[in-house]
Amino acid sequence: MIVIASGKRYLDIDAYASMLAYRELLKLKEIEAMAVSNVPLNESVPPSLLAYPFKFDDYEVKEGDQFIVLDVSNKDFFASFVTLDHLIEIIDHHPGNEDFWADYTLNRCIIEPIGAVATILFEFYVKENLLHKMDKSIAKLLMAAILDNTLYFKAKITKDRDRDAYKRLEEIAGVNSTFVEHYFMECQDMILSQFEEAIKNDTKIENISPYLPSVFGQLILWDKECIQDKIACMKEILSSFGEDWMINIVSLKEGRSYLFYSNKQVKNNLEVLFAISSLEDFILLDTVWLRKEIMKKALDKK
Ligand SMILES: [Mn+2]
Questions:
Q1: pLDDT at 293
Q2: Residues 6 or more apart in contact with residue 138 via CB below 8 angstroms
Q3: What residues make up the domain containing 56?
Q4: Are residues 25 and 142 in the same domain?
Q5: Residues near ion ligand 1 (Cβ under 5 Å)
Q6: What's the 118 CA to ligand 1 centre distance in angstroms?
Q7: Pairing of the two strands 203-205 and 108-111
Q8: Stated pTM of the model
Q9: The sheet that has 87-92: what strands, in order across it?
Q10: How many angstroms separate the alpha carbon of residue 217 from the centre of ligand 1?
């Protein structure tokens, strides 16, 4: 049996959608395969997508099964049941492990900088000339994955291939532009319903640069307005991690990042880093910045 797998801690919509799309593609080619995971899904997979008629298989991995791994290429993070001896394929977009796999003989190993693995899966359907047979629900899952992993095409890793794939998937799914807001609002609702957990799960504590506090949180929202009455609560949660903190609130609808901070010292450092000054109790950036991009800017600053 061919088993399609992903990571070992949690799966996001890119892994989820790509695994199901790959299984369905193999089915169209009359190759039997199972999409298998034993870990939770994160808040990028909202209830309406889980209600689609495509789900993971209830399958127990057996001796001799072969593995295709998607959206992860660091072997230490592979699903626990994956064995390297029987690994046949890796499709990923996280850099860093290309050299390791260069020494392995796999049927296929694609690790490339692109917005989403879902885009690569879309391209597989095109290559196999089976796009006309793609189910509408699979198209919607892949669309959600591209939206999430490219942050609505605003993340710097986004390629034209992601935009092209999305456009063609939109036609197959037969949905209009409200899909975007609907998807991100549903993810936002999941974040709000477990607000403290969401902040804790996405806060990094690490000394990176004199320009940044060691506690650095991030929330990716559709509309920053939705946390207006939660700001005090958010500050309290972050203060529990340390005296100096900041949080990057991405507001996708506006295409901007809001930086909240613990005190004047942190504020001053951020104003120097971004060459900006603010009269508000936050710093408003004019585009979306991801935490990893802010970290890189701080590291590059002499
Ligand atoms: Mn991904």
A1: 87
A2: 17, 20, 21, 24, 54
A3: 2-186
A4: yes
A5: 14, 71, 117, 149
A6: 8
A7: unpaired
A8: 0.89
A9: 33-35, 2-5, 66-70, 87-92, 108-111
A10: 20
